[in-house]
Amino acid sequence: MDIRFWNQEIETLAQKDLRQLQLTRLRELIGYAMKTPFYHKRLKKAGISSPEDIQDLEDLQKIPFTVKDDLRQAFPKGLLAVDMEQVVRIHSSSGTTGIPTVIYYTAKDLDRWTDLLARGIVATGAGPADVFQNMMSYGLFTGGLGLHYGAERVGLTVIPVGGGNTQRQLQLMRDFKTSVLHITPSYLLHIHQRMPEFRISPADLNLKKAWMGAEPHSENTRLKLQELYGIDIYNSYGLSEMNGPGVAFECAYKKDLHVWEDGYIIEIIDPATGKVLPEGQEGEVVFTNLIRHAMPLLRYRTRDLAFLHPEPCPCGRTGRRMSRITGRTDDMMIINGVNVFPSQIEEILMSIPEVGNNYQIHLTRKEGLDRLAVKVEIYSKLFTGDLSQLDALKAKINDKLRASITINSRIELHEPGALPAFEGKAKRVVDERDKL
Ligand code: DLL
Predict the structure, then answer these.
(1) What is the CA 354 to chain-centroid distance, rounded?
(2) What residues flank ligand 1, with Cβ below 6 Å?
(3) Ligand 1 centroid, distance to 245 Cα (angstroms)
(4) pTM of the complete model
(5) Longest C-alpha distance within the chain, in Å?
(6) Going from the N-terminus, what domains does the chain have, and what CATH number goes with each?
(7) What is the tens place of the pLDDT at every residue in 384-411?
């Protein structure tokens, strides 16, 4: 096994020293948090008015949770802890629920984040000899720029192509002998399906590994993709609120993801009671970001479900490992990498006068890509036999939805009463993506 480190000292720090470092950083973070209007009020209310009120890591429990909605309420600057002059970049979540959420970074914040990505890259055995094709989108999404800077720091040759345009991606892989990819599982599946069209097979390429993330996927999906391409695939996890990718990364052993615990405090809580669960038990993942000062986030509830492995990893890293994401506590769907809530779709549908009051969201996967179909009941007076009128209505619904959720859907129109009706809790989302 090829075990390499980017920063061996910190990656193998004894648990005791790691906890001490977390405490020091947490106290520093509280100082920054107190400068934001949002936490100033919230922490005061919880009886915390200075870093001295945090004596040990147990005191973290005194701090209330932060949720996504807090970020929206605090938009645009309620969580900003530094002057705008110190902010060098913003990112935004791919979620498109009404009020956006924004993340601010100082130059130092970016530097610390980049270092965590460098660790993940090296942990998977990649290095300066690799040619890295970054197929995550660049822009407000953190996936593109995050890994880009991490890879440059380690010294890989970066091809900053971003997502989409399969033919060009394959061309680049062939021309530059790309050895490492950063990609979502759905896109990696899709590319394989399209290879015959361009008369390319994985054997014609120089691919060795891929970092895969931004979307949930099963171990079976990983195994299948590894076999199809003949490469090693490593899971990479992160979220914009915690800077982006690089919160947790798999090492050469591929036995779930090391959390960089000097950068993040991870807690697993019971989503119903908010109580911290014993190690090994599955629950909602909560993170405190110890390395971003421009916009501190304390005890942020991710709504992702996972558990922590109590036993150490043979690679020697002391950062505990979290399982792959096993589900979500909310109904957020991730459709080709875009975070979409059913409520967004409902809001749009219900703003269209021709739409009745029943609808269904149908998710399938074809050629490796997620497909969204929205079935809606419309008023029977519209079924006059005039098909062009119905086509115009479909186009209108799709346009309105696309403006909100940024993706295309196939619209099906139904007569009133045609879709399943619910007496209790409605089940509006039918997700058949796992039926490959
Ligand atoms: O998806 C950051 C990222 C980019 C991670 C590239 C990895 C690679 P958001 O758009 O804020 O950020 O979405 C975060 O995506 O809460 C999870 O629900 C899901 N997610 C991210 N990585 C994984 C993964 C980026 N490896 C949300 N497995 C998170 C399962 C993932 N789900």
Answers:
(1) 35
(2) 93-94, 136, 142-143, 213-216, 235-240, 244-245, 302, 304, 324-325, 339
(3) 7
(4) 0.87
(5) 74
(6) 1-328 (3.40.50.12780), 333-435 (3.30.300.30)
(7) 778 888 999 999 999 999 998 999 999 9
